[in-house]
Design goal:
The chain has about 210 residues and is of the alpha+beta class. It has one domain: minor pseudopilin epsh fold. It contains three helices and ten strands; from the N terminus they run H-H-E-E-E-E-E-E-E-H-E-E-E. Strands 1, 2, 3, 4 and 7 form a five-stranded antiparallel beta sheet that branches. The radius of gyration is 25 Å and the shape is elongated. It starts with 13 loop residues before the first helix and ends in a 5-residue tail after the last strand.
Length: about 210
Amino acid sequence: MKQLPEKKNRGFTLIEMTVILAIFAILLAVLVPSLDPVAGFRANRAAISIGAALDRTKTEAMDRLVGEMRLSWTSDGYYISYYLDRGKTGVREEQSEKITSGRMKISYTDSNGTTVNLWEDGTNELILTYDRSTGGFLPIQSRVWEQKDILKMLSDGEDIPLDRPENSTQPYCEKITVHGGGQRTRIITLFQDTGKYTISAGKDAS
């Protein structure tokens, strides 16, 4: 009986190894951010800080002519500052609080469905406040008002110069996203009518 020659085990070719390594690198890039406990901790801490700032802003806005919160980005980090009416001393900015490093990515989505990345040039801040009469959110504020502007408008018999639905086309902020990678991402959902919010885990891999 004629014996068939044995097939030699030739192993992997260079091309096959290159393809396998490329696939492994892609999977690693996808999985590692979502497994990074430090990124998750920073995202969670930043989200909690934003929530606390919203609580404080609501309290201040209910008691004063002006109570605004500004979330801003610089290369050094993300900061929260408050603009409060201090009576005779005017509207002034309280000391900024750094909530996370500039390497973190925070964005917000407005009621038009537009997502704005705060870390990109030209879109480095989000200004929020509340409606004193309802406790709900007002539209995203287009600027921080100075005391002289407020006093002039009040002396002219006009309302407090905040962006409102009846005098502005500014959209509302619907959610703020702190990108931590995968399930580490935190989403702060804002409810326009009640002024309340929730913080939940997201699936954004940014």
